[in-house]
Structures are given as C-alpha cells and as structure tokens.
Amino acid sequence: MTTSIIGFPRLGEHRELKFSTEKYWRHQITADQLQQAARDLRLKHWQLVKAAGIDGIPSNDFSFFDTTLDTATLLNIVPDAVDALDLSPLDRYFALARGYQGDHGDVKALPMKKWFNTNYHYLVPQFTATTQVKLVGSKIFDEYQEAQDAGIQTRPVIVGPFTLLSLSEFHDCQPTDFVTDLVAAYQTIFARLAAQGADWIQLDEPELVKDVTGTRRELFKTLYDQLLTQKSGLKVLVQTYFGDVRDVYTDLIHLPIEGVGLDFHEGRKTADLVRSGFPADKTLFAGVVNGKNIWRNHYAQTLALLKTLPVQRLVISTSCSLLHVPFTVANETFPAPVKQHFAFATEKLGELTDLQANLAGQKTTAFAANQALFAQPRVQPNPKVHDRIAHLTADSFTRQPALAQRAKIQQREFQLPLLPTTTIGSFPQTRDVKRTRAQFRKHEISQADYDHFIGEHIKEWLKWQEDIGLDVLVHGEFERNDMVEYFGQHLDGYLFSRNGWVQSYGTRGVKPPIIWGDVARNQPITVKWSTFAQRQTDKLVKGMLTGPVTILNWSFPREDISQRESTIQIALAIQDEVLDLEKNGIKIIQIDEAALREKLPLRQSDWYSEYLDWAVPAFRLVHSRVQPGTQIHTHMCYSEFTDIIPAIQNLDADVISFEASRSNLEILDALQREHFQLQVGPGVYDIHSPRIPSVAEITTTIHQILAKVPEQKVWINPDCGLKTRGVTEAKASVANLTAAAKAIRAELQPKGD
Ligand SMILES: CN1c2c(nc(N)[nH]c2=O)NC[C@@H]1CNc1ccc(C(=O)N[C@@H](CCC(=O)N[C@@H](CCC(=O)N[C@@H](CCC(=O)O)C(=O)O)C(=O)O)C(=O)O)cc1
Ligand SMILES: N[C@@H](CCS)C(=O)O
Ligand SMILES: [Zn+2]
Questions:
Q1: Taking the model in full, what pTM does it have?
Q2: Closest CA to 310 of 288, 287, 282, 290
Q3: What Enzyme Commission number(s) does the record list for this chain (predicted)?
Q4: Domains identified in the chain and CATH numbers
C-alpha cells in the first residue's frame, strides 16, 4: 500500500509564479528568466512532495496558465488566427489565454469556463473542420525529464481524451471526427514517455463523474478501446474526481488499465461501487483525503472506510488535485487551538502518510492527536441565529408585489433611458490601491489616511462615469480585497488566512475565507462607502453586495452542518445589509451571485433536489423585504445557465447581468425560448482580456442582443467587474461601450422624439 497525490498547487508558497509571470507580461523580465522561475518552483514542489514521503509524485501538473490549454497546445488544437500571429511559443500560449493586441495582430482570448464545480477556470479548446490533431509540443516530456534529472521519478499527468473532447467546442465538426488522430497522438505520448523511463501515466477524466450515457458513453468506450489496443509499456491510471462514476464504473474497471482513481468525498456512491467488486489485478487510487477543503481528515472514519473496501492493491490518495487548497498552514497565525483543525496542501501530504502508517498497523501519536481533535465539539452554536431561522415562514422568501408591477414603479421613479448603461461594480485594483491596502493592513497608515485614499478614488471614478455618460454608477469597490473575502472579514463566524491563496485563473488567485461557526452580521458592511458615493452625484449609484450562495461557494465551508444551513445564515446577514442600504437611500442594489451556476451538481438529476431547491430560496430571502421601488440586480459571470432558466427567473431579481461575450451570446436563444421576464444585461465585451473592444465591435454585439431580447428589457454592461484591468484599458473600453449604446439608442428612438 502506497500514497499518491493527483496534483499540487502551482502558484508557489508565496505566489512566485504569479509575480514572475506578471513581470514577464510587463516586459520586466525575459522569457528565460520566467522559465527559470518556473523550473525552480517545479523542483521545489517535487522535492517537497518527495520529502513528505509520498510515493506517487505527479509531473506536468504545473502550468503557466491552465493544463487544459497545455493539452490543447501540445496537440495542435490552436485556432489559425493565433497561429498566424507569428509569436514565440510562449507568447502564442499567452495570446491564447489572454488575447493579443499589438504589432503582430489582434485576436481574442479563448473562452474561459469554470472547471467543473470549482472556482478554477480552464480555457476551452476550439476545434474546427481544419484542426489537425497531432503531437507538436514537448512540455510533458520536458517536465518529466526535468524531474528525472533531479533524481525524482514522477507520474506525468495529462487531461484524458474523453474529458478533453467533452470540454472543447466544435465548429462545423464533431468530436468523433477527431478520435483517430487524438488516439494516435496519445499513443505517441505514451511511447515517448515510456522510452524516457516513465512507469505510469495519469489520464485525468473528471468528465466521467457527470452523466455518461448514450453517445457520451459510446465516445468514452471508443476512445479507450482504441487507445489501449496498443501496449506502450506504461501503466495507465484513469483518474476521476469531483463525484462518482456510477454510469461507467463497470466499463472503467474492466478496461485494460492498471489504475483507477476514485473520489470518496464528493463521490456519494463511490464506496458502494467499490464494495460491489474491484478487480484483483488493478490498483485503486482511493481519494480519501479531501482535496477541496481545508479541514483535517478524520483518521478513524477514513481508516474504517478503507477497511471496508475489498481491494488488494491500494494507493491512498486525495479526492482531487491539491490545486484547490492553499499551499501551507505553516505561514498562518491562527491560534494553536484553531490551527490544529486545518490541513492545507502541504499538511495533506502528512495526512496521507499518517493514514498509510495506521493502515499498516502502526499506532502513531498523530493518530492519537487526531482522535483527540475530533473528540470535542469545535464550536458552540449562536442561539440568536438559530432562533431567527426557526421563525422563517414561506412569506420570508417572497417579495411583493410581482415583477411586472415593480418594473413599472421603478421605471416611473428612475426614468432611465432605453438601453441603460452600467458596469458590474469593481474598477481597477491598481498596484496603488493594493499597496495602500497592504500598508493599512500592516498599520503603516491610519484609518483616516486609508479612508481618505478610498474616498478620493471613489470621487475620481464617479466623475469619470458622469463624464462618459453612464446611467447607473458604481462606487468601484476600491475598499474590497475580494468580493467574498471582504464580506467574510466583516461577518461573525468567519476566519481568514494571511496567505491562503488558491488559483482562480492564470495568475489570479483568491483567499477563500473559512466558515468557522454560525454566521451573523453585527454591523453594517457596505453602507458607509455606498452612501458616500451616492452623496457625490445626482445619478443613481448601485449598492454592491455579494449573495449568500456565492459567499458560501467561494468560502471554505463547514463540514459539521449542511451547506444549506450555512447559506441561510449568510442570507439573513446579507438581508440585514440590503435593508440598511435601502434605509439609507440606495435605490438600486446589486446582489452578485457569480458562483450560483458553478456549484450546480454535475449530475442533472441532482440539480434541484441537492442544490437549487435551497440555493434559490436563499437568494429570495435576501431581498424579500425590500420596497417595490427598490430595484434588485443580480450578476452571474458564468452564463451557462441555459438549462436552469426557470430557476434563474425564480430568483425574482429585477435585473440580471451576466457573462456572455466569451460564449458567443448563446444564452440569448434560451432566454427567448423560455420567455425570460427579468431585464437582462448580457455582457457586451470580455473583461478577462486586456484588449480594448472597438465601438464597432460592441455595436455589433448590441445588435445581436437586440435581435433576441426586447429592447425595453436590455441593459448594456461589460461581462463582469473591471478590477483586473488596467486604468487605461478599462476607461477606453467602457467609453466605447457608452458610445455604442448611445449610437444605438439614437437609431432606436423615432426621429423627432
Ligand atoms: C469574479 N471572480 C471571482 C472569483 N472568486 C472570488 N473569490 N472572487 C472573484 O472576484 N471567481 C470567479 C471570478 C474570477 N476570479 C478572479 C479571481 C481573482 C481575481 C484577482 O484579481 N485576484 C487578485 C487578488 C485580489 C486580492 O485579494 N487582493 C488583496 C491582496 C493583494 C495583494 O496581493 N497584496 C500584496 C501587496 C501588494 C503590493 O504591495 O503592491 C500582498 O498582500 O502581499 C488586496 O487587494 O488587498 C490577484 O492578484 O490574484 C480576479 C478575478
Ligand atoms: N461586483 C463584482 C462582481 C464580480 S463577479 C465586481 O464587479 O467585481
Ligand atoms: Zn462577474
């Protein structure tokens, strides 16, 4: 029995990869210097995992941006327009990830989507009829060699062919067109790795935990039947995570492969599947240490589970890559009684070896300490929170009057023009803003100095919004480090780390706050800056809140109470904030539910019963008590909600804005089909890229929207907040947006009006 991990965080203990990459983008270091920084990090991580005593060490889990993009570039799945830019391989790679606008041309970035039910994003490979899948890159071989040269035998990891095809988009072609070439390319990879001395390869196939029936199951079987006809000498591990593989368990365990990786945390049926039988000649990589949350593993429970499995060859592993948790608890300053409850990536390595020792019959002190940790209740309930929840009734979740009536009242009061323009909330978090906040955090500047700084920024950006003619203004969220962490820091029941960074996309990270106990609000959170902003202008300023489902989903949740219960607690706290904003004269309040779609269960049969049946009411609870004249907006930066439009409608907000430009406005057809009633602001340009959309480009997009949505219902806004953008590009882009909206408004309004 041995130990293994699926992948390790790649940004670095102190986010070294982020800082080096961003320096390269700013032309402050060379490509060679960036490559050296990446090599240093990879080596440090392999050595750390090896020193911890882990047997199965992955390689090629490193990436400059995303491993799905790495796989696409390795296999020549690159749009012609990007190839034609004539850039170095590294710059071409970044052009795919971020778009490119410069001397070599102008291309958009690849679409970016959520990686299954996580807050990590992958880039969506684009297949066209002319795509020629073949092995053209060398990253996987280079990184294997690099580790081998350092004396470390690794197991190269690559996105498996079924997941790759399932996550990609196809234009004038279909997945089956590429099976033969794809299989040949993977076989070449196997052969080359075997020749280099590798003994295992890990094919990541999280798609297998979704519904895999009908043609999807056929595709999976075809790919693996063909792939495995040729023996390379490599042992193959098919690694799944984020759920159980109930639809294909039998297919999977009968494949001619050596290892099967299963998730025992999110895979509700995994244990039962394995108990129904597991072949003696295969190795089970049992994902028993939770790769997604930061709580210590309950050793006694895990060992009890492992002992029930009828498996002869066992590897103790994590439930998914450790990419989704921070690097180490060691740099945190939590008091010891608190800290002992946490295991970040590095500490999880120790958990794997502790479990291994105990399963081998050793009575370790770590096991005794773990038993003691779980013997005591961790927190006491907050009676006020429980009392409030006990008194909720059906009315607590229902806003009056109905949507159409509210819309009339609000339009009478606000007198907004056709196609009202707005932004999603945040403006650039410049180095100046971040540095000043860091100084405040370290007590190098006073509260008064910090407030003055934030106030001046708000005033400056309000003036700019007025100058370019936006209709509904925002204060810019300059006082916030992050839309979830900021709320966590202002709510009872939360803890937050100093350095608990987790990659969200590319070089961007988040520090998810930790829900430690019952959540409640003990003072207003956003009223100060929202009312400050409203006092500076006669135009409407939107209040800006994060919704309960998003706060829950982007925090590390408790495991001792249900997520539903935690979310209702958060909803009541945010309801208090909504009512305080309203009381203080804020007429439009946006409650962001950016993560609502992301946590939709991966299996369709679970969508409502396991999630939407409580997530939607939680949102309704937040705004159910506002006046009819208060307009509630919501925002989702992930638009793949075509299949759950009734649930989105049922949120009963007045206006919704969402990410749409990177996904070709596909959602609009569905909104039309489903007779969507809310006013909508489909994002008219992609904010994840530094390129500036022209007025003509935005005008075309608005025309596409108007072809599908009645003009009285359309708002014009970017895809998401502008916090990641530079000042110049943000201002130029939004100015183009308002210019495009005004031009179209003039076209729509009858002459003489
Ligand atoms: C909208 N999105 C969000 C998601 N998840 C969230 N939790 N929040 C989101 O907004 N998921 C989906 C999308 C896209 N995701 C992201 C994720 C992250 C960013 C982003 O801009 N991240 C920043 C870090 C933001 C932050 O926490 N800033 C802090 C700390 C800043 C910092 O690094 N300070 C330095 C000192 C700086 C100096 O001296 O110059 C330090 O502490 O050492 C803050 O501002 O206070 C990132 O850089 O990765 C965007 C979209
Ligand atoms: N109000 C937030 C939403 C991001 S999803 C922002 O603008 O950054
Ligand atoms: Zn967003």
A1: 0.95
A2: 282
A3: 2.1.1.14
A4: 400-480+527-747 (3.20.20.210)
